[in-house]
């Protein structure tokens, strides 16, 4: 659908909103379903700890950060879509939130880690250098995934510092 493609992150002079909207667009049904599965899994854990508003803010900011870094690094003819960076931001937040010495929480973190490692091992490797219609095609944007996860760590640390400051006041 032509109007949907205007929401993709086009790396040459994108409008600001494409950094966010690209995290809600997907290339295939398989792409959408795998991201929905991980969004449900990690989003549920983040929502339990941070609430509905915290979940959506974490998703949106992780998605925007995950799209910003590849925009700086990848060629200007690239196009980015997908929620993997935002979902990995939620993954990082959920793992850090669940980290404690409570046996149940440690087990949850180990299961989550196993799911992510297994899914990443099954994913096809990126095919950089392939061009379709003038755009570089890469099946997995590893830069976005890493950026989203790192931003999730940053966001978790920032929220924890704010909570500690609020408790001392």
From TrEMBL:
Its main location: membrane. The chain crosses the membrane at residues 16-42, 54-73, 79-97. It comes from the Eukaryota. SUPFAM superfamilies: Rhomboid-like. GO terms for cellular component: membrane. InterPro entries: Peptidase_S54_rhomboid_dom, Rhomboid-like_sf. Keywords: Membrane, Transmembrane, Transmembrane helix. Pfam families: Rhomboid (PF01694). Residues 16-155 form the Peptidase S54 rhomboid domain. GO terms for molecular function: serine-type endopeptidase activity. Gene3D superfamilies: Rhomboid-like. The keyword Transmembrane helix applies. The keyword Acetylation does not apply. It is a multi-pass membrane protein. It is found in: Membrane. Coiled coil: none annotated. Belongs to the peptidase S54 family. This is Peptidase S54 rhomboid domain-containing protein. It comes from Citrus clementina.
